[in-house]
Amino acid sequence: MSHNEMMNFDEFITNHIIFYRSPHLNIIMKYITFVGDIFGYIILCVIFGLFFYFKKNWRVSLQITLVLVLASGINVFLKNFISRPRPLINRIMYANFYSFPSGHAMSAIVFYGFISYLSLLLLNKTWQKGLIITFCILMIFAIGISRIYLGVHYPSDILAGYLAGMAWLMFCLVVLNILTLRKIRLNSYK
């Protein structure tokens, strides 16, 4: 995709999303973007951490936190490397630092993708798995749309964040599965 094509894509999508701005929707989008911010994830990690701690599975809470923290580091590296400025017009809220790829989108894929993966592993009932995965997918898209709506990201930033998040999540899940299989194999020799 050429630079002009990407700019046209960004402008087309942004115009369609900001067309629906209203005072009430502005408030909702700010709350959604907060859930995808560092403070939102700290709260969610504490909640999940306590849940898994009481379930005697503290490793899962550590895994969630570690995967998310490392994703943030990768995102900062990518933003500094690419150095794309944020949109200058149509902002409802202020955001500092570079724009590409979206850290909110990347973190949403990593966090909610990991929660979806855990629900597939740990839950027995299909309807529970479906409910959690559906909720996670909705949160991923809502967080991405909120960033465009609030004027702090281009749509291409969001898509790049989703792709970077998916790549990191897949890498982490492969490593996690290899370590789990290795542990099972080592325990079978005892």
Portion in helices: over 70%
Number of helices: 7
- How far apart are the termini? 55 Å
Percentage of residues in DSSP E strands: under 5%
Summarize the structure.
The protein is mostly helical and 190 residues long. It is built from seven helices and no strands.
Q: What is this structure's SSE topology?
A:
Blueprint: H1 3-18, H2 23-35, H3 38-54, H4 58-82, H5 103-122, H6 126-149, H7 155-188
Helix pairs in contact: 2-6, 3-4, 4-5, 5-6, 5-7
What can you tell me about this protein's structure?
The protein has helices at residues 3-18, 23-35, 38-54, 58-82, 103-122, 126-149, 155-188. Helix 2 (23-35) packs across helix 6 (126-149) and helix 5 runs parallel beside helix 7 (155-188). The protein has one domain (14-188). The protein is mainly α.
Provide keyphrases for this structure.
0% strand, single chain, 190 residues, mainly alpha
